[in-house]
Design brief:
The complex is a heterodimer of chains A (192) and B (584). With 192 residues, chain A is of the alpha/beta class. Helix content of chain A is 39%, strand content 22%. A 6-stranded mixed β-sheet of chain A has the order 2-3-1-4-5-6, with helices on both faces. Chain A is globular. In chain A, 58% of the residues are buried. With 584 residues, chain B is α/β, with parallel strands linked by helices. In chain B, strand 6, helix 7 and strand 7 form a beta-alpha-beta unit. Classes of the chains: A alpha/beta (192), B alpha/beta (584). Chains A and B meet through helix 1, strand 2, helix 2, helix 3 and helix 4 of A and strand 1, strand 8, helix 11, helix 14 and strand 21 of B. Strand 2 of chain A pairs antiparallel with strand 8 of chain B, so a sheet runs across the interface.
């Protein structure tokens, strides 16, 4: 298959990296070549975080450049809008509508931009916005947002569901597997 | 053989295990940290967090001399710290294999400079190899140990952020078990007195010639046949960008970037119409190729000297045409990193900002105090520089006879142990007059929470002797050593004022654990809407849990209960008593 490109964006501490880890594992189980890119260190302290997953028959570069993304999974509206120019014309956006202020907003030096949801709707053909944080909290922990979003994105992933389910079992720590599976199911219902 | 998705760093660790490596030493530094973290869980391997990179390399040199395959890992700037032993280990050579893994950070995701560490290979006349993905990273570690032992040399394994932190498919292999070689007494080889070193220098030059000859046929260098209109010479991550941008072109992929295989390069160059050299940062390969008398048509004349590359950048710069670009959404605000809710650094910087002191900073999470709303760090150079630079500042101010207040150095526990100690010894010894604040949060925070000599635990282990920072400072001779609670900002302000009035060096030590590493969870605060006057004083705490909503002439503050970690700094700034901890 041709290379499929997924961008996953959010705020440091939201658990962005786990979503990409599960997708990469599922691609490996599907027998595909896969590359995943992430950035550690300073950016993780509440800053903007971006993870990238690419899979297909053969993948060279581990990073996705402007206009190449098939799917954008956003953990937060502003961080979703920030990467819209990376989308293909027919790219899909799935994102959590719960905003998180920046430090500039918190110190009243800046305002959280208005109309972010409208911009996302205008710029992408297929958009699924929903309050993922609420579903995660309902599943038992706000930190399961990553599995909620993965569940919502499932129907847009060119991977068999069985591989994704196995990848969750292989990747998520045993202690929290059950609530994460619950979160995934809640997201999946949203994505249908 | 099993397939797994590993980061470059995890693959390097796996390569070390498969090569039968026994001793690994490192100091944490993005993007190199995960190599040692991975090895610290392996039985039969001594994996340690050394106090700094110089020590780590010296420990690894000792390991190699003792007869076991040894590895030192560090980020690019760490190699500067370790440069002294590196230059002379080139002369002594090894006994069992020795590899230095050095991780560069093009684009500076988490670094203070963008140096190209490959220059150390040239400076030290040491071989440098660069893998292009995780699978190669694993194989290159094994090749590095073979090279090291075949040529009696330390080998530099150079990665970049996109090699170290990208994950790709790796096939793991079997574990070798090379026999231990034991310590060898060899005065002429290992004791670098001038007379011995003179002979070893001749050996080093000869070794470099032999390495160059070896590189001509090494499997680490290979040609991918293809279209000869533009032929590419490239290495590391740039190879991937070239392959994606120009999938039909012929490519000479260099695994050994020092010394270069001159004959192979000449042959390749003569087979193509135009020659392109694609590498991030400095023209390290390109300059060497030009020095061979070969024309490089496309290189740093079209490619940038800074930042990281991508398939798009390579395509555009080499073809000289701009690809269509979608409009970036305008009007978005930046999201810079910031202190975690509950972090003790917040209290400290609230006070330093209020007192408008001049702060000599250091490398760690606390460097974020340089950003708004605090803007309370005024220089940050390298690991450990805060104290020595503050000492120089104080002396400089005294020489000018100015009335400026004495400078303050801010440094973390791990950085203090890394190279702040020497600065403090120097300051106390040389009549220093600055305030040193050691923010001891009991971990190496910025790199994800590693152990160090002050935490009382070794890498992957349970218990180690615990260094007492206060006692150490007293032993150095600092007369005024005081413990502070960085969360209590009024007390801290009082202490700061007292110490500013004193002559001579002061050391203030905060002992508040990192809330992220130790999962400190305190009850959230909330705001009584009716009582809040909208004065915004609490916003000086610079916390993302706070938000201000304008309403009428003023407005009100809210606290996000999911983000607040109950540190109480904002509550201490509040003058109306509208903030309460616990369920409101």
């Amino acid at each position: 298959m041709n290379v499929f490109n997924i961008l996953i964006s959010g705020v440091g501490g939201q658990g962005v990296l786990l979503t990409s880890k599960v997708i990469a594992e599922a691609a490996l189980l599907a027998g595909l070549d896969v590359k995943q890119s992430e950035v550690h260190g300073m950016a993780q302290r509440g800053g903007s975080v971006l993870s990238q997953v690419r899979f297909g028959d053969k993948v060279f570069s581990p990073i996705i450049t402007e206009g190449e993304a098939d799917l954008l999974i956003g953990f937060e509206p502003l961080e979703t809008a920030r990467y819209l120019h990376f989308l293909k014309d027919d790219g899909v956006v799935i994102y959590n509508t719960r905003p998180i202020g920046t430090i500039g907003v918190s110190i009243a030096a800046e305002k959280y931009p208005s109309g972010v949801n409208d911009v996302i709707k205008d710029r992408a053909k297929t958009v699924l916005p929903f309050d993922g944080t609420q579903l995660a909290v309902a599943a038992g922990d706000k930190r399961t947002l990553n599995l909620v979003l993965l569940g919502a994105a499932l129907s847009h992933l060119p991977l068999k569901e069985a591989f994704v389910l196995d990848a969750i079992v292989n990747t998520v720590p045993k202690k929290v597997l059950e609530i994460n599976q619950k979160a995934f199911a809640a997201g999946r219902a949203q994505g249908k | 053989m099993t397939k797994a998705i590993l980061s470059g760093n995890e693959a390097i660790a796996r390569g070390f295990i498969e090569a039968g490596g026994k001793l690994a030493a490192a100091y944490p530094g993005t993007p190199s940290t995960e190599v040692l973290e991975t090895l610290s869980h392996e039985k039969g391997i001594h994996a340690e967090w050394s106090v700094n990179e110089k020590v780590a390399l010296e420990v690894a040199i000792g390991g190699a001399l003792s007869g076991v395959r040894s590895l030192a890992c560090m980020k690019h700037v760490g190699v500067n710290v370790a440069a002294d032993p590196l230059m002379t280990a080139s002369y002594t050579g090894i006994n069992a294999g020795l590899v230095l893994m050095a991780a560069d950070d093009p684009g500076m995701f988490s670094s203070q400079n963008e140096q190209d560490t490959r220059h150390y290979a040239r400076l030290g006349k040491l071989p440098c190899i660069e893998p292009s993905d995780s699978a190669e990273a694993l194989q290159y570690v094994k090749a590095a140990f073979e090279m090291s032992e075949a040529f009696d040399t330390p080998v530099i394994l150079r990665t970049t952020t996109r090699i170290s932190h990208c994950k790709s498919v790796v096939e793991t292999g079997t574990v070798e078990s090379p026999a231990g070689r034991g310590l060898v007494k060899d005065f002429a080889k290992y004791v670098m007195l001038p007379n011995n070193a003179k002979k070893r220098h001749v050996f080093v030059e000869d070794r470099l010639m032999r390495l160059k000859e070896w590189a001509e046929t090494s499997r680490l260098n290979r040609i991918i046949d293809g279209d000869k209109e533009i032929g590419f010479i490239t290495s590391g991550i740039s190879f991937q960008y070239v392959r994606e941008a120009f999938p039909k072109a012929t490519v000479l992929k260099l695994g050994t970037t020092f010394p270069l295989p001159e004959k192979l390069i000449k042959k390749f160059a003569s087979s193509v119409t135009k020659l392109a050299v694609v590498e991030e940062l400095d023209p390290f390969i390109e300059d060497q190729i030009k020095a061979m008398g070969i024309t490089v048509h496309l290189g740093k004349n079209v490619l940038p000297l800074w930042g990281e590359f991508s398939q798009r950048l390579v395509r555009e710069r080499i073809s000289g045409s701009t690809l269509p670009m979608k409009e970036v959404v305008s009007g978005l605000i930046m999201r810079p990193p910031t202190f975690c809710p509950g972090c003790s650094h917040r209290g400290l910087y609230t006070v330093l900002a209020k007192l408008k002191l001049h702060v000599s900073g250091d490398i760690g999470c606390y460097t974020l105090g340089a950003l708004p709303p605090f803007s309370a760090m005024h220089s940050c150079i390298c690991m450990g520089a805060s104290i020595s630079a503050a000492h120089g500042m104080a002396q400089g101010l005294a020489l000018q006879g100015t009335q400026q207040q004495k400078p303050v150095a801010v440094i973390g526990d791990s950085t203090f142990l890394h190279s702040g100690i020497t600065g403090l010894i120097n300051m106390v010894y040389n009549g220093g007059d600055a305030i040193v604040i050691i923010m001891n949060n009991d971990t190496t925070g910025m790199t994800g929470g590693q152990e160090h000599a002050g935490t009382g635990r070794p890498a992957g282990g349970v218990e180690a002797p615990r260094l007492d920072i206060a006692k150490l400072c007293q032993a150095i001779g600092a007369k005024r050593v005081r413990e502070i609670d960085a969360y209590k900002i009024k007390d801290l302000e009082k202490i700061m004022k007292e110490e500013l009035a004193e002559k001579g060096p002061t050391v203030l030590i905060s002992n508040q654990p990192c809330v992220l590493r130790y999962r400190v969870s305190k009850k959230a605060y909330s705001v009584e809407r009716e009582s809040c006057k909208g004065c915004k004083l609490c916003l000086k705490a610079g916390c993302i849990a706070l938000s201000f909503t304008p309403e009428g002439k003023t407005g009100y503050v809210e606290i996000d209960p999911l983000l607040c970690n109950g540190c109480g700094v904002c509550e201490q700034l509040c003058t109306t008593g509208c903030m309460k901890q616990g369920d409101a």
